[in-house]
Amino acid sequence: MIQLRDVHKHYGDYHALRGIDLEIKKGEFFSLLGPSGCGKTTLLRTIAGFEAPSSGSLTIDGRDMAGVAANHRPTNMVFQSYAIFPHLSVAENVGFGLRRDPRSKAEKARAVAESLEMVGLGGYGARAAHALSGGQRQRVALARALILKPKVLLLDEPLSALDKKMRETMQVELIKLQRNVGITFILVTHDQEEALIMSDRIAVMFEGNIAQMADPETMYRRPNSRRVAEFIGKMNLLPATAAMERNRIVVDVAGLGRGAIEPDQAPSGVQPGATTVGIRPETLSILFPGETTDRRLAAGTVDEVVYFGDMTYYDVRIPGVEQPLTISMKNLIGRPVLDVGAVTQVVWDERSLVVLSR
Ligand SMILES: Nc1ncnc2c1ncn2[C@@H]1O[C@H](COP(=O)(O)OP(=O)(O)OP(=O)(O)O)[C@@H](O)[C@H]1O
Question: What InterPro entries does the entry give (predicted)?
């Protein structure tokens, strides 16, 4: 539905977008994720028509958007600083975009009520906008965008001003809303958790480039580079050597040992020789007294313990490995929390390794 081909954007000498190729499907919840300054807002604004690409093409529904003004595109944008008008009522805010709509007053009022219903603010129409909470204002901004029935809703960090609890509630509500209305959502966020929770697909951006584009599970389990791996969640990085042995890829991981891996565990390919592998903390575990395993073991010493409610995070030092490995363990009834200095066995599985050669 939305297609970008080799899109570049220059601001004077600064090269903000460096050849973006992107295809977003109808009805998809797509997130642009990356650190501050990577160009995600520029990309969103380019799709919206607030910025013109320096080169490259953008089509929406097969129609070339070159020269098409923002207000003539089938898109609508919801901003971080959801600029609602404080002197108007909630209903007046939501109906603002219908000022020039030829429908009757009663029909417009019905559309406003419907939009408010969609965002969980049914019955709030008469309230003064200035008397709303942050989360409610955000919903008003959403209702105001939805009433225009855009094909694509562009969301620029829409939840970043909300506190954590409210943000989590709104994340779930936004997902439900998107499923109900079926329109394409493109979300800009620097919050990896938010992107993982909400998206059908994510593009991770660094310095004006898309580093990886994938569904959340692939992005998390099979990052294609060290940088993506470290940007999303916590990843243990270990030096390793890779070799091809009878058509199998075998990696020898410092301190852990050798294991054969599948091709999908090396999303950017494998060069024989020195490499880096990643392993997520929750794919490692500690073998507690009385437990057995048929998986691989490595002996180590607990270096650090961080207790975190239902989880405990251990840093375990393993001979031959420079950095302690972080291991997250669910706190279960009867499972002790180890102390710093405890000698332990770390359980690992070659299936959770990912080769991060870049
Ligand atoms: N109008 C502009 N003129 C000059 N440089 C700009 C302009 N807009 C953005 N930039 C630069 O382009 C780069 C990308 O900006 P952009 O706003 O897209 O980043 P971002 O990834 O959205 O970051 P943030 O999360 O901080 O908003 C930044 O280095 C920024 O300074």
Answer: AAA+_ATPase, ABC_SmlMolc_Importer, ABC_transporter-like_ATP-bd, ABC_transporter-like_CS, Mo/tungstate-bd_C_term_dom, P-loop_NTPase, Transp-assoc_OB_typ2
pLDDT digits (tens, 9 = 90+) for 255-302: 999 999 999 999 998 889 999 999 999 999 999 988 999 999 999 999
ipTM over 0.90: yes
| Residue closest by Cα to atom 8 of ligand 1 | 42
159 C-alpha vs ligand 1 centroid, how far in Å?
Answer: 19
CATH number for 234-355: choose from 2.40.50.140, 3.30.750.80, 3.30.70.20, 3.30.465.10.
2.40.50.140
Q: What distance in Å separates the CA atoms of residue 231 and residue 229, rounded to the nearest whole number?
A: 6
> Best of 32, 42, 187 to mutate for ligand 1, by most ligand atoms within 8 A of CB?
42
**Between 306 and 180, whose confidence is greater?**
306
Q: Which amino acid is at 56?
A: G
β-partners of residue 128 are 89
Helices (H), 279-343: none
Strand partners of residue 273: 242
Pairing of strands 248-253, 236-245: antiparallel
Distance of CA 49 to the CA centre of its chain: 23
Report the topology of domain 2-226.
Rossmann fold (3.40.50)
